[in-house]
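Crash report, auto-generated. Payload:
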Amino acid sequence: MMQTLPRERIVITGVGLTAPGGANDLAEFRRRLLAGESGISTIELRYMGTAPAGICDFAETRYRKKKENKRGTRAGCIGVYCANEALLDAGIDFSGYDRARTGVYIGLTEHGTVETENEVYNISRFDYNVDYWTHHHNPRTVLNNPAGEITMNLGITGPHYSVGAACAAGNAALIQGCQMLRLGEVDLALCGGISECVGSFGIFASFRAQGALAEHPDPTRASRPLDRDRNGIVISEGGCVFTLERLDRALDRGARIYGEIVGYSMNSDARDFVLPHGPRQTECMRMALERASLAPADISILNTHATGTRQGDVEECRGIRELFADCPQTAVNNTKSLIGHAMGAAGVLELAGNLPSFTDNLVHPTINIDHLDPDCALPGLVIGTPRRMERVETILNNSFGMVGINSVVIVQRFVAK
Amino acid sequence: MTRDEIKDMILEIIEDIDEEAEFDQLDPDAPLRDQLDLDSMDFLDIVMELRKRYKLQIPEEEYPQLATLTSCVNYLEPRLKDA
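Recovered output after restart:
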């Protein structure tokens, strides 16, 4: 699948993001990741009380009025911020691109849960009389809502839709953007992922019922994938949108290129609603490598999906150990230890956090590992402090989700060829 | 409620929908939607807020009577006289 024609090569030229803890651009996000600063705090949830969570704090009214934020959804608000930031970062003002030939593809783990819970709570104060159910419910909960809010804000008239792929959704939307560019359906793709999950007590309660919700007296220590004493997932909100362009157009306008998407893969476990399945994840990584015409040893950094559940962490690490057995130079990290699990945004936020390694040649560390789980003791694991590499050439980004959906994206340092 | 109280209440609801709404130049006899950044969904927000605050069920065919600030006050005055 390795693409060689410039019109088929897809590059990342802009990044807009908001990450838990208040990092609202790539430079600040990178600084915090390298410093090993946790973005996790706590949230007070309806019916449940306090839980560790990753919460964003960004300029919500920088790109649209408060009235429009009230009308729309939290996911839409995050999306509008990230999309505008990505376009600014890319230097795209639509003088060279047609809004009708621009696509918006947003990965979501779920959508509508937050709004539905809020409305049920609202009518509970009126004896469950549905006359008090809001007329905003449907436009807020249609699955294309966050992507649609972005198009309304930016006047983009090309296609927009959501890609639902549980926690693999960010990667899935990135892949969708690549495909649409290669098919010639659009000339510019805004794609990424968004999570508004911290607004839903039900998502927390469901993980707790499953025994998979992290707890720790110090919230910054709660997200501890790969640690022996991990006790579950820290739920985060967040968003990240990339601008993707075909290489020829990007070069024509002199765009800064963060990296080239040289391989990707998605597959399904076809097995269990919640439990991950390592062998299928390994197949997914292998297929992405083959499509990129790369060997495992060619990968400089592997960003693990590991969320802080024992089975998930161990399954993934087993596959990595098998596939990367002869790759001592491949560095492995886990971004969720720093920002929690940003669900639909996880894949893209984690990829974004690693992208600057093409210029600084550093690998940001995994934090909160006091007692490394022996089953997760991968040789290249970067723990505690950043690792300097001679030269970072490739990043492999794992992102897996419930109901057995796996995604892998490989990004390469851009080299003209 | 007095006519003035009703007027202030309507403006308060609108301000809650759009805190940037400017009322200085508002013509009470011209349609609110022509003068403020309000669309049909915002208008339904006003209807919903009246329902929540005063248990007022306004039939859809009577919505046109809420078009201007003055017509709002005229329509609501008898219905909110004990409020």
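Post-recovery validation: Residues 10-252 of chain A form a domain with the Peroxisomal Thiolase; Chain A, domain 1 fold (CATH 3.40.47.10).
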